[in-house]
Predict the 3D structure of the following.
Amino acid sequence: MDKMPEVEEEEISLSPASTAPATPISLHEFKMLPLFMDFEDFTICKPAPFSHDEKAVQELERCDYNQRITYQMAQSGQTTRRVRVYADGIYDLFHQGHARQLMQAKNIFPNVYLIVGVCNDELTLRMKGRTVMNGYERYEAVRHCRYVDEIVPNAPWSLSDEFLSEHKIDFVAHDDIPYGAGGVNDIYAPLKARGMFVVTERTEGVSTSDIVARIVKDYDVYVRRNLARGYSAKELNVSFLSEKKFRLQNKMDELKTRGKRELTKVKVDIITKWEEKSREFIDAFLLLFGRERLNHLWNESKGRIIQALSPPGSPNGSINGDDLDTTEEGGDSEDEYMELTPEYGADTEGSMNGTQKTRRRKTNRSYDEAVAEDEDEAVEVKEYDEEKRNK
């Protein structure tokens, strides 16, 4: 890690005005940073300088390159100066794979001064192919990475001894995969033989070629995306008919999205209203059929339910299926007498000795008593008939 320069207390003392919170007075107080600007006004964080900048030149002059640093010395951290590590590349569409490679190079040894070489557009087009970002954009992307201490623009494709000596490079960091160019199987082979090569690992699953392939694969999607953001068909290099087709597709997608949103809103409203109605129904049900009301209804209907479910009892004191209620002693009830047919009496209608009813007969008598009484009645009837004939 780089050591921060010591600062006197007078330089870091804050004035009363500087302790106030940084609250913007208006919405337009904070403006966007210009593309080309002087970073000398920034005292804490600055982008890495180019190799020809004054700061980089001073760092180069302070380095005693006559004192060569071996891998063991750099690994142990027992060096009298910073270890100058060089990493190079195209860095088109700067992504996390690039940042991870530079982070590994920065942390490969203690006290590393990381120099990053970036090839220009002409060399890259000739050796590898067209880039998405131009040289200036790629320089700026790399120099704003926090792991980088210095940028070398117009970096060479193969590293010569003159280039290594010019920038006082101790080690070169790159992945261990052989990289061929110009009829050479591996341009880093001489550095590996001299012990000046340190290995970094590639980040699987991401590369500039993969990102470009994603854009090409979903070409229509990204064209429609930029049309929706205000780009013209000319800027996107699409024909008039293609532009109309893409705009129509954008409208259809917008309608679908709006329809789904409205449908979701309607569903939520229906569910909310249903919940409100269900609460009202439950409250009304509990009011009508609460615990007290249910207990009252149960007490009222319990006797009826028991009577309906119980079997009927057998008749007590009945004769030949007759079920006559008993009366109190001395009571005269019409149900306690048996009427006689008219043939047993001429003076009365179905009566004996001029009366309409026979003697009282209890309904709660036993079967033997009832039979005896019937026999007595039959004898009386027979005597009555004989007496009548004799007259």
Notes: Residues 240-288 form the longest helix (49 residues).
